Amino acid sequence: MIEDRRGFLGGIASLAGVGAGLVAPVRAFAKAATGSGATPGAMIVSTWDFGAPANDAAFARGRSGGSLIDMVEAGVMVPEADPNNHSVGYGGYPDRDGHVTLDAVIMDDAGNVGAVGALEDTVHAISVARAVMEHTPHTFLVGEGATRFARDRGFPHVNLLTPEAEKAWRDWLKTQNYKPVANSETGTYGAGRPGTPGGALDHDTIGMLARDASGRMAGACTTSGMAFKMRGRLGDSPQVGSGLYVERGVGGATSTGLGEEVTRTVGTARVVASMRHGMSPQAACEEAAKHIAALRGDAIKGMQVGFLAMDTKGRIGAFCLLPGFTYAVTDAAGHTRVEKAPSLFKA
Ligand code: SD4
Description:
Blueprint: H1 8-16, H2 27-33, E1 42-47, H3 51-63, H4 68-80, E2 102-108, E3 113-119, H5 125-135, E4 140-142, H6 143-152, H7 163-175, E5 203-211, E6 217-226, E7 244-247, E8 251-257, H8 259-263, H9 267-276, H10 281-296, E9 305-311, E10 316-320, E11 326-331, E12 336-340
Parallel strand pairs: 3-4
Antiparallel strand pairs: 1-5, 1-11, 2-3, 2-6, 5-6, 7-8, 8-9, 9-10, 11-12
Helix pairs in contact: 3-4, 4-5, 9-10
């Protein structure tokens, strides 16, 4: 666990009252989780099959009295710390210059949000995003400033480039062929060994949404972005309304896949807006994916984008461009399953 010392911005934040009320325990969640007064529907959803152990960690945090923000943070910290996951946190594939850079956002349904982009030398980007939310007057820090903020807050300096990821990068340098591969994220969860979702040109993300029995919600999204991306490239993941959006009384959505396609359509804000206007989470995810396809035509051929949404009642929606997007669902009893999302195209 990362030491959380008070940095110089801590004083500003407490003066401003930033993040007040975010750490109240989720009693309603605990009630639902123990079965009394349980509401139907999902409690936690996350992208890809490696979301399953992350959901379990989030559920455990909720059971032990954590807030929704505590839950989504604890959940996505699992793949962030996994060196075998080449697309999130430690062990992530670097940019084309050999630097591992991380993007993350965390958000609740009251408009509290924190994000970091192009963060370096820090394992838990989501915790730095949370610190931005709770200890600064800002919503988004990037690059050198984000990394300096992480050091100021006491997050340890860690070299994120593992020997395996460095070898993949050096191999890639020989050809410098850049083409994202669809669905390289999914893979081996449940096959008896840790998930290794990364292909050599992998890009992926964990996006997670959690709710309590009263329908309050929070979400988190964290990634190392596209493997071998241009230095300075930011994807959809850390951007509110693209990688993640949560709205009180409506629900939330998160995205994965080729971030540029989600960013140009502000995909998750669109999904949540459709839900606000009465669409089911499933219909809203389908509408957003179809919109990308209609807008972009041949430009998205062979590219993957996936949307995952949950409303305040725990109804889920998931839809993608190409077959292969999977997601993990945890119910109020703590049972987790992995599902396949329907797709717009056959292949
Ligand atoms: C990005 N959307 O940086 C992220 C990558 C991702 O599954 O989600 N891949 O573009």
